[in-house]
Amino acid sequence: MWDWPFWKATVWMWGAIIGDVFIVLGLWKLMELLFSSVSFEKTQLKDYTYLILVSFMASIALEWGAKFLNLWTYSDLMPVLIIFDYEVGLSPIIQITFLPALSLFLSEKSKNKEFYNVKF
Fold this sequence. Notes:
mainly alpha; two-stranded antiparallel sheet
């Protein structure tokens, strides 16, 4: 991708960002449909656990789909997991697994007024 023209790389990167947003929102909605006990108003540990497990399964399915459609390939530097004899990239799996839970956590914390008063 580093050798792509500027506009092609820009469009692909924005597409990836928008895709990640839709993945996070889709997983959030899927959790509401699958588990009626899950509440994103007051998130508990079990809610995060369910979300991480479903996100992990979705990450594997999405990576397999992307590899099947030849949307991308991994460089030799990408650490991979082999799941059912198929390679999936470790960093995309980690990203898709934890990004929805992290987004939810930060969203909840941002509702707390003390969150904005933290000094870094």
